[in-house]
Specification:
By secondary structure, this protein is mostly helical. It is built from 25 helices and no strands. It has 2 domains: 313 residues, no CATH class; 207 residues, Phosphate transport system protein phou homolog 2, domain 2 (Methane Monooxygenase Hydroxylase, Chain G, domain 1, Up-down Bundle), CATH 1.20.58.
Length: 572
């Protein structure tokens, strides 16, 4: 045997180059289509059919079904997507993952693509240093594309030749004499290969290379592809371990959907292989059977032709699996719900606790996920304003109810600020686009200011509670002025929420600045009223101190609201 340890290291290194190229290619595509991907994700919630299109599109762009499904599990856990809505996206991701196989089998084996790949790197390398971010990201994607196929060429050269190393074939042959058991063995091999590489695309590429080099025959390669369809579900299930019950159900659905597909395919395996053989022979100029081992051993052209057949098998299987099981999705959902019951309110809670675990499927899209949490935080602060208003003006019997609500919501905003800040810090470690980096900084600022708003409302509630304990009574004129200030702050919070809910940078700053001017002007006016009341003896100094404390804290809330609007607009 002429294959030594150094040759093996070259194979591992070649695989590393291929996976690295795929990562650069994928990251570049995500940056180019960052905003469009956010738009695609908004379409997830329409119905199952649009979900399939969404899953296919997202996986084609990210070049990874694992990325898409982990992202879906994250969204379900965050409450941005329901379990039912996630099923369509998962099915679409299964179809989208077959695009890589076609790309590799068409360009990697049928053409001498290395000179083209190197030329692509030469053409786009200078654009890495331009100021135009869009052009820079396109250059990153194309360089990744080039590295990907250079890595593939290295893999083909590093794989030991069967003619010179017959021991390899002898080793594999000892697992091929078990009839249908052989197929099951290589389904397991495909599953394990995907777990080791953490990429179904990389595992599929390795399978294509083994088939093209004559290591394995077509049925074994097809069995490995089935195993890789199971292996790609494992990562999402691991991601769901620290998620809520809805995230776990989405991950389990993906697993059962793929496993059921593999089971029915294994039942029809010989017939389906004959169908693929027929299609490959009729639509290929070579017209060579991919199931004839003698031809496959002796004809490199037949082996290359078989890689197209394997891509056809992969795509047809996933498309048919979606068509066959589409109508059974409600039953699958019932099964998964029964197998993964809820353990109570805490298990149902939709939060972003998993973000502290470092699961970062796609940095660009994760920003949108974090932004949803910022929107939730803004909604909570608006609810705190209503509770504070109720505390002052809804009657004594409801005081404790509003105090409890304000305290609970302030604790929630503390948790959200910490989790989102940690998450954004982790996202910042990636190579983000200039726009995304600016957006991350803006969100850091927004969560900080929103948490300060919540703190101020909590401080107002504590001051009000102390005023009740000390039996201090405000005159009607003072209460009316506090009510006017609160109403103006609520109007500013409403505008802030509308601005946050819009597109980043598209903010009504004129309206926000006008609202802030009104708040400052009212604050100055109310201070004058305060001194006049003191001079008239309408209330004592202690009541005046409480009154000024309320007015000043409410005005500070207005300052933080303006800060949030500025951050949402991308200013400062």
């Amino acid at each position: 045997m002429t294959y030594n340890f150094f040759d093996f290291l070259q194979l591992i290194g070649s695989l590393g180059i291929f996976i690295y190229g795929m990562k650069i290619f994928s990251d570049g595509l995500q940056k180019v289509a960052g905003e469009k991907l956010r738009g695609i994700l908004k379409g997830m919630t329409t119905n199952r059919l649009t979900g399939i299109v969404t899953g296919f599109t997202a996986t084609t762009i990210t070049q990874s079904s694992t990325t898409t499904t982990v992202m879906v599990v994250s969204f379900v856990n965050a409450g941005l997507l329901t379990f039912l809505e996630s099923t369509g996206v998962i099915m679409g991701a299964n179809i989208g993952t077959t695009v890589t196989a076609w790309m590799v089998s068409v360009f990697g084996f049928r053409f001498q693509i290395t000179p083209i790949a190197v030329s692509l790197i030469g053409i786009f390398f200078p654009f890495l240093f331009v100021r135009n971010n869009k052009l820079k990201h396109v250059a990153e994607a194309m360089i990744g594309f080039g590295i990907l196929f250079i890595g593939l060429e290295f893999i083909k050269d590093a794989v030991p030749d069967i003619q010179e190393n017959p021991q390899i074939l002898s080793f594999l042959n000892q697992f091929t004499d078990y009839g249908f058991g052989t197929i099951l063995i290589f389904v397991m091999v495909g599953t394990i290969l995907t777990l080791v590489t953490q990429s179904s695309s990389a595992a599929t590429t390795i399978t294509l290379v083994m088939l093209a080099q004559g290591w394995i025959n077509f049925p074994i390669a097809a069995a490995m592809i089935l195993g890789e369809n199971i292996g790609t579900t494992i990562t999402a299930n691991i991601a769901a371990l620290i998620g809520n019950v809805h995230a776990k159900r989405a991950a389990r659905f993906h697993f059962f959907f793929n496993v059921i597909g593999v089971i029915w395919m294994l039942a029809l395996f010989p017939f389906f292989l004959n169908f693929v053989d027929f299609m490959t022979m009729n639509f290929s100029p070579a017209q060579l059977s991919v199931l004839d081992d003698a031809i496959m051993r002796d004809s490199p052209e037949a082996r290359i032709n078989a890689t197209l057949g394997l891509s056809l098998f992969h795509t047809t299987f996933n498309v048919l699996n979606v068509l066959f099981l589409f109508a059974l999705v409600p039953q699958l959902i019932k099964l998964v719900t029964w197998l993964q019951p809820s353990r109570g309110v805490e298990d149902e809670q939709k939060s972003l606790k998993y973000i502290s675990g470092g699961l970062m499927p796609t940095a660009e899209l994760s920003i949108s996920e974090a932004y949803k949490e910022v929107e939730l935080m803004a909604k909570i602060t608006e609810k705190m304003s209503f509770s504070t208003y109720g505390l002052f003006f809804k009657g004594k019997e409801k005081h404790q109810k509003f105090l409890d609500k304000i305290k609970k919501r302030e604790e929630i905003t503390d948790r959200i600020e910490l989790e989102v800040a940690q998450y954004l810090t982790s996202v910042s470690e990636f190579n983000l686009s200039k726009t995304s980096s600016r957006r991350v900084r803006s969100m850091h600022r927004m969560v900080n200011d929103l948490e300060r708003i919540a703190d101020l409302y909590y401080q107002v509630s504590r001051t009000f509670e102390r005023m009740l304990e000390e039996k201090v009574v405000m005159p009607e004129s003072a209460n009316q002025e506090i009510q006017d200030m609160m109403q103006l702050i609520q109007d500013s919070l409403k505008l802030m929420r509308e601005n946050i809910a819009g597109e980043y940078g598209d903010v009504d700053m004129k309206g926000a600045e006008l609202m802030e001017s009104k708040i400052d002007a009212l604050r100055d006016e109310l201070r004058q009223s305060h001194y006049q009341r003191l001079e008239r003896g309408d209330y004592d100094v202690k009541a005046g101190i409480f009154y000024l404390d309320f007015i000043n804290r409410l005005e500070k809330i207005g300052d933080h609201v303006l800060n949030v609007n500025e951050a949402s607009a991308g200013l400062k």
